[in-house]
Write a structure and sequence with these properties.
207 residues; alpha/beta; 4-stranded mixed beta sheet; globular
Length: 207
């Protein structure tokens, strides 16, 4: 039976996966919607929090369907809209710090976008030709070190990171102060954050 094969669009993440999961059959540099595999190569394909970040979500799901074998299962996750507390917290931090928001942010073209709801996400998989489609909302408390949660946006990751990259040093200090204040209620006795969050998990079968 073939083992697990993984891809990532970031070279450093590919190297990290190779070092941390040496049992993986293969880890490649690649990105949706173009995977370097033959059609019908896999019994299952999973994309965790990837569809949020592609320019053509339907094409990305279609590519996952292409590499799946008949009756193979496709499973994908995204953050919902409206966002859960763990994601909306960053907007509250920026508002408290007095950060001016840009009038435009990178987003999927309207004709290629879809509602980030259970119905909208399931509809995307339906449109890609998958069958036996379902979508569930999963909720949990994301436990993480406060410095780890800060480091993502502080290093330019995701939309909060893009916004932080444009701020002067004095504003970063104000953002950090607001972050420390607004995350304090979520800190457990062990010092870790326990952030309420949610995700949409949609799945379907290759016909």
């Amino acid at each position: 039976m073939p083992g697990v094969v993984a891809v990532d669009a970031e070279p450093s993440m590919v190297e990290l996966a190779r070092s941390r999961v040496p049992s993986a059959e293969e880890v490649r540099l690649a990105a949706l919607p173009s995977l370097p595999f033959s059609s019908g190569s896999f019994d299952a394909a999973v994309a965790n929090f990837v569809i949020n970040h592609v320019g053509d979500p339907l094409a990305a799901i279609g590519e996952l369907r292409r590499v799946g074998r008949p009756a193979g299962r496709i499973a994908v996750t995204i953050w919902p809209d409206p966002p859960p507390e763990a994601q909306s917290l960053w907007g509250e931090v920026f508002d408290a710090a007095g950060v001016d928001r840009p009038t435009s942010v990178p987003r999927v073209d309207a004709e290629r976008d879809f509602p980030r709801t259970p119905e909208g996400f399931a509809g995307l998989l339906d449109a890609a030709g998958l069958v036996d489609v379902r979508c569930d909302t999963i909720t949990w408390a994301h436990r993480t070190d406060p410095e780890a949660w800060w480091s993502g946006p502080a290093n330019g990751i995701s939309r909060p990171g893009l916004l932080m990259e444009t701020q002067p040093a004095a504003m970063i200090v104000r953002i950090r102060a607001a972050y420390d204040e607004l995350t304090a209620p979520y800190r457990d006795p062990d010092g870790l954050l326990a952030l309420p969050t949610a995700a949409l998990l949609a799945s379907g079968s290759v016909p």
